[in-house]
Amino acid sequence: MLTVTAAPALPVEIETQRPAPGKSWWRRSLTVLLLLLGIGSAIGGWYWWHQPRNIVPAGIVWGNGRIDAREIDIDTKFAGRVYELLVDEGDMVTEGQVVARMDTRDLQAQLGREEALVRQNEHAIAEAEANVAQLKTQQALAQMELDRTSALFKRGYATRELYDQRFQALNGANETLKAAQARVVEAHHAYDAAKHNVELDQVNINDNTLVAPRAGRIQYRISSLGEILPAGGKIFSMIDISDVYMDIYLPTLEAGRVKIGNDARIVLDAYPEHPIRSKVTFLATQAQFTPKAVETKSERDKLMFRVKVRIDPDILKKYADSVRTGLPGNAYVRIDPNVEWPSWLQSRSAN
């Protein structure tokens, strides 16, 4: 009987299954792609969030710019030394507030001399008027003597010679009186001249006390204490908070519809929820290149018209301490009076 014996199983090497090289590359690429899409979405969302998210209706045009204000230089009228500085950079000042004083010791000495001349001329006037009063009595006496001599001469009791002497004496008294009266007038003129010199010295002393011409904020201190300045030397530069504006640049088709006095709103990037009531106060008559402050190159390459949008002075008075220059933002101009401002441009600060 035959016995069949099974052959021993050969050892088989079992390999661990690995993904194909092509599948691994696609998986990594997909991960990188998703990551890039996430970053792009985040950047796009941030950009969208910082752009005007509201649609501007037809009849309203807008442009971007920066808040600016009229600058005023506070400078000296005369050459001199800076004696006192009463404010510093960043301080708010009111109209007429004293901000600096110059050294006026030389003017004070000159003023004392002119005041002494005034008093001297006052005495000269009194003396001249007393002399006139005395000469009037002499004239009256000469007139009476002539009248008596004339009566006697007519009756033959006085000679012709005596009458002529009395007549010449009266003429001499009259001329002397006229000369004395002229000296009184001259003394008055000298007094007036001395008085005007005193007033001029006082004006010059007052002009060396520098005051703020308008309410505003001190922006720069240009000179230091004790510094000697020429006439017209600048001490402070300030901004006038009653004249705050934004310059925007509009293309021809839009600028051509803008008029002086058009209602406007300024929306600052720092305060997007608080539109500021404004008006158009200037429109350029010639096109020009826009400045570098305009952000996009395509806009800088165009010829645009400058439009000045000025903030309502009543709002500036209310928020004077908050006025800052250089803040970027957008200005919206309503060129169609029949168009209503959208709700996002009608906040409390705009009404």
TrEMBL record:
Name the record gives this protein: Secretion protein HlyD family protein
SUPFAM superfamilies reported for this sequence: HlyD-like secretion proteins
PANTHER family: 36 KDA ANTIGEN-RELATED, MEMBRANE PROTEIN
Organism: Beijerinckia indica subsp. indica (strain ATCC 9039 / DSM 1715 / NCIMB 8712)
Superkingdom of the organism of origin: Bacteria
TM ranges: 30-49
Entry coiled-coil feature ranges: 118-145
Signal peptide positions (record): none
GO terms for cellular component: plasma membrane
Keywords tagged on the record: Coiled coil, Membrane, Transmembrane, Transmembrane helix
